[in-house]
Design a protein that fits this description.
By secondary structure, this protein is mainly alpha-helical. It has 2 domains: about 90 residues, Alpha Horseshoe (Serine Threonine Protein Phosphatase 5, Tetratricopeptide repeat), CATH 1.25.40.10; about 60 residues. Helix content is about 85%, strand content about 0%. It is built from 9 helices and no strands. The radius of gyration is 31 Å and the shape is elongated.
């Protein structure tokens, strides 16, 4: 009887414990299951989003190859509006900047390029955007702002940075400063195997030191 009573006590204790804690355990299990399936669902959603953005990107590039500016803009706008958090959005902004430049909408092009510089995680893309922005600012005669974009020349982009810096200095009437910048650009172009013909012409026009 003592053993039976002990078992009954154990059952009662278990019932009491379950009454006090069972709901929270079940809730924890449910939350865990929902979390697992929710995470998988989110991953699947991200994959679908990336695939859809990729398709639009390919369509944008195809339109570019065909010089179809109308569809280039349509696809770029869709990527930016529907998939702005994807990596493809950066390239869509670059495309929109290019189209705006071709239409002489320099303020729009400037805004697009500044957005790329702010959001991209890829140093090469940032350099490309900075160089394009500097050219836009030069065209808009915002020479000091353009010069600020060229303050950190880097690696294989150093020659292009120095060349643009030379262009700005020349427009500002500093022929000697421009010559020095072009010479630095030439040295960097030789180092990375870039074309040097335009730099050679610019130096010849200024007279080599």
């Amino acid at each position: 009887m003592d053993a039976y009573r002990t078992e009954e006590e154990q059952v009662e204790a278990l019932k009491k414990w379950w009454s006090e804690n069972g709901k929270s355990i079940v809730a924890g299990i449910i939350i865990g299951i929902v979390g697992i399936f929710g995470w998988r669902g989110w991953n699947n959603h991200q994959l679908v989003q990336a695939e859809s953005a990729s398709i639009l990107y390919e369509q944008m590039i195809a339109a570019s190859r065909n010089d179809d500016n109308e569809n280039m803009k349509i696809y770029a706008d869709r990527i930016v509006s529907e998939y702005d958090k994807s990596s493809y959005a950066v390239f869509a902004h670059l495309m929109l900047a290019r189209l705006a430049t071709e239409e002489n909408q320099l303020d729009t092009a400037e805004s697009e390029l500044r957005l790329v510089i702010k959001t991209t995680q890829t140093p090469e893309v940032e350099h490309i955007a900075r160089l394009r922005l500097a050219r836009i600012l030069i065209a808009a005669e915002k020479l000091e702002e353009a010069k600020q974009q060229l303050s950190k020349p880097s690696g294989k982009f150093a020659a292009r940075y120095e060349e643009l810096r030379g262009d700005i200095l020349l427009q500002q009437g500093d022929a000697e400063g421009a010559r020095e910048a072009y010479q630095k650009a030439l040295v960097n172009a030789i180092a990375v195997g870039d074309s040097q013909s335009i730099l050679e012409m610019k130096l010849d026009d200024l007279g080599r030191s």
